[in-house]
Write a structure and sequence with these properties.
The complex is a heterodimer of chains A (about 110) and B (about 110). Chain A has about 110 residues and is mostly beta strands. Chain A is about 0% helix and about 60% strand. With about 110 residues, chain B is an all-beta fold. The chains are: A mainly beta (about 110), B mainly beta (about 110).
């Protein structure tokens, strides 16, 4: 399977703490993206990092990419209760062009 | 609001029914996708359309039949479904097949009884 893997599967933290989620993949990629999904809703694109980039920031989000290890991490700093959601990494395979999703990390931020 | 609209939001259908899911985008995107999201499973890519042509069918059973009449609309026709087909069906679009981010609709929650 080309499916990406994420860990942890579930994460529970207090408001104000940082949350880190990791993603590993198996193929060559053009880019890697992170999405957020509130319960039972559609996915919302958060940030994209290209294969030639190592780190990217957007507001309280920081994404890193290590193509030698085929892994990425998403850091949410100073978390808020409203950050409670599922977070998915997705990578676009450079071989097939497919956008392949990981299994997701469920984040709970307690007020 | 992502610019991708799916209807209906919820659908309950019997195994002998025929129904259709609709997806619409006015983002000027050329690629559209159907994904299936089941509980505790990763998103499964079902179909890809690029410039109205189907470019991918990921071994989806024939009881799911996609249709893309133009680059703004995508349908998923359903017939003789099974209870295990119950899931959240998500439509997405992107600028092109190798494009950047995908924009998702809110999904249709399908229950097959």
């Amino acid at each position: 399977s080309q499916q990406g893997e994420e860990d942890p599967q579930a994460l529970s933290i207090q408001e104000g703490e940082n949350a880190t989620m990791n993603c590993s993949y198996k193929t060559s990629i053009n880019n890697l993206q992170w999405y957020r999904q509130n319960s039972g809703r559609g996915l919302v694109h958060l940030i994209l990092i290209r294969s030639n980039e190592r780190e990217k920031h957007s507001g309280r989000l920081r994404v890193t990419l290590d193509t030698s290890k085929k892994s990425s991490s998403l850091l949410i700093t100073a978390s808020r209760a409203a950050d409670t959601a599922s977070y998915f990494c997705a990578y676009r395979s450079s071989n097939t062009g497919k956008l392949i999703f990981g299994q997701g990390t469920t984040l709970q931020v307690k007020p | 609001e992502t610019g991708v609209t799916q209807t209906p939001r919820h659908l309950v259908m019997g195994m002998t029914n025929k129904k259709s899911l609709k997806c619409e985008q006015h983002l000027g995107h050329n690629a559209m996708y159907w994904y299936k999201q089941s509980a505790k499973k990763p998103l499964e890519l079902m179909f890809v359309y690029n410039f109205k042509e189907q470019t991918e069918n990921n071994s989806v059973p024939s009881r799911f039949s996609p249709e893309c009449p133009n680059s703004s609309h995508l349908f998923l026709h359903l017939h003789t479904l099974q209870p295990e087909d119950s899931a959240l069906y998500l439509c997405a679009s992107s600028q092109d097949r190798a494009g950047t981010e995908a924009f998702f609709g809110q999904g249709t929650r399908l229950t097959v009884v």
